[in-house]
Amino acid sequence: MEFRQTRYNAANFKGDKMKSIKEVMLSRHSCRKFCSDKLNSELVREILDLARLSPSSCGLEPWRMMIISDPCELKELSVACNSQPQVAECSHAVILIARNDLRVGEAYLERTVRRRANTPQKYEAAMNYFRAKFAGLDDEALMNYATKQLYILAANIANIAEGFDVRSCIMTGFDAAALEKLCALEAKFRPAIVVALGHGEPSKYPHTRYELDEILISRGGSEKR
Ligand SMILES: Cc1cc2nc3c(=O)[nH]c(=O)nc-3n(C[C@H](O)[C@H](O)[C@H](O)COP(=O)(O)O)c2cc1C
């Protein structure tokens, strides 16, 4: 049995001129008006290469990402996304795809677990854990479990992009059947989130958000208004 580790090589990381997390959180807004210049594809790869380090439940990374950048394909994608214009006008759209082949016996689970369980005993223990964890879940429940992980990936893509002064829009406003048809993937894959990326003017308006003291709640507490 082969045990392999993959490690992100920080020495190769080119993005040393990124905004701080604080700057990112203060400046990121959903962009609905991208300008027509294309992003450098290497930069898009770098954004996704960092985002793939996102956490996921049990480290299963139940995702795939599809990049669409051809203007005709972006138009097609926009139609699937309820004709939202920012999809047709963005530079690159990243479709985040959940996968539900996570049961014991499925090649993906076994390959994924093997990366960390570096002895046969650890591997067997992990498989017993997953056998119990997923035994009661049907395909749809497993897909929902996987889809939750994609939201973390989406947030990280948007924030990392903003760190490079790249605008973004996270989207779930699409016709699911049309998006599935466009992606044309096997049943174990389901497109769940679209993230549009591109150049655009920085947003100058403040965030509309509740204050921290309003969203903090105590155990058994009711809302203070
Ligand atoms: C899960 C999710 C789905 C979203 N779907 C869409 C969408 O389909 N179209 C869109 O224009 N914005 C979409 N948004 C963006 C939200 O409208 C936006 O984040 C929210 O209004 C706050 O604005 P801000 O991102 O500019 O701070 C989505 C955001 C999230 C997190």
TrEMBL record:
InterPro entries: Nitroreductase, Nitroreductase-like
Regions annotated as coiled coil: none
Cofactor: FMN
UniProt KW Flavoprotein keyword: yes
Domain of life of the native organism: Bacteria
Key word Acyltransferase present: no
An MF annotation (GO) of this entry: oxidoreductase activity
Residue intervals of the Nitroreductase domain: 27-199
Keywords of this entry: Flavoprotein, FMN, Oxidoreductase
Family label: Belongs to the nitroreductase family.
The name this protein goes by in its record: Nitroreductase family protein
Originating species: Campylobacter gracilis RM3268
Phylogenetic lineage: Bacteria, Pseudomonadati, Campylobacterota, Epsilonproteobacteria, Campylobacterales
